[in-house]
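Field log, afternoon session.

UNIT: design team B
ACTIVITY: writing a sequence onto a fixed backbone
BACKBONE:
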C-alpha cells in the first residue's frame, strides 16, 4: 500500500480540508468530546470518545494505510474523519472518528469528507470499508446509507462495543 501526499484544499465556504497535524490533536479531541456529549455518547459506554489514543490521533494515523483529515473553518478544527486498516481483516479498512461540530453540519461536508476517505481507501488497495455507529446518530446513518454502506455483522475488536450498528461498503 502506498501513502500518497494529500494537499489541503479550500472549499467554497472557506473551510479547509487538510491532513491532521500534531498541533491539531488537542482541538480535535475537544471537538470529538463535545460532539459525543451532545449526543450522549459517554466514555464509560464503549464509544470512540473513550479511546486512549484520542489525545494523540496524529500519531495513530501515521501508520501504513492510515490517514486522517480535519476540516478547519475560521482557524478552528470543526470536523474530521479517518481511514485505518481493520486489524485481522485483510483488505478491509475502517472509516473512523467522523465527527462534525454543529456549526458546520448540513453543508455537505460529511459527504465530501467521506468521499475523500473512500478515494484514499481505494488508492491504498482496500477492497471494502467498514464502520461502526449507533442508532443515536440518525444523520450519520442516513449519510452512510446514501453512500452505499449496508449493515453487516461486527468485524474484529474495535473496542467500540456500544456501537450496535456495523456497516460495510465494497470499494
Amino acid at each position: 500500500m502506498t501513502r500518497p501526499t494529500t494537499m489541503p484544499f479550500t472549499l467554497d465556504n472557506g473551510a479547509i480540508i487538510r491532513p491532521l497535524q500534531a498541533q491539531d490533536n488537542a482541538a480535535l479531541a475537544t471537538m470529538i468530546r463535545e460532539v459525543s456529549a451532545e449526543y450522549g455518547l459517554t466514555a464509560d459506554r464503549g464509544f470512540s470518545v473513550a479511546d486512549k489514543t484520542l489525545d494523540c490521533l496524529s500519531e495513530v494515523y501515521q501508520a501504513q494505510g492510515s490517514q486522517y483529515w480535519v476540516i478547519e473553518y475560521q482557524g478552528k478544527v470543526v470536523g474530521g474523519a479517518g481511514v485505518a486498516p481493520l486489524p485481522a481483516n485483510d483488505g478491509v479498512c475502517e472509516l473512523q472518528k467522523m465527527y462534525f461540530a454543529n456549526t458546520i453540519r448540513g453543508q455537505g461536508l460529511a459527504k465530501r469528507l467521506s468521499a475523500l476517505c473512500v478515494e484514499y481507501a481505494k488508492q491504498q488497495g482496500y477492497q471494502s470499508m467498514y464502520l461502526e455507529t449507533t442508532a443515536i446518530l440518525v444523520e450519520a446513518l442516513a449519510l452512510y446509507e446514501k453512500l452505499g454502506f449496508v449493515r453487516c455483522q461486527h468485524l474484529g475488536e474495535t473496542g467500540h462495543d456500544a456501537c450496535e450498528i456495523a456497516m460495510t461498503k465494497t470499494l
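LOG NOTE: DSSP finds four helices and eight strands in the chain.
NEXT ACTIVITY: expression trials, pending approval
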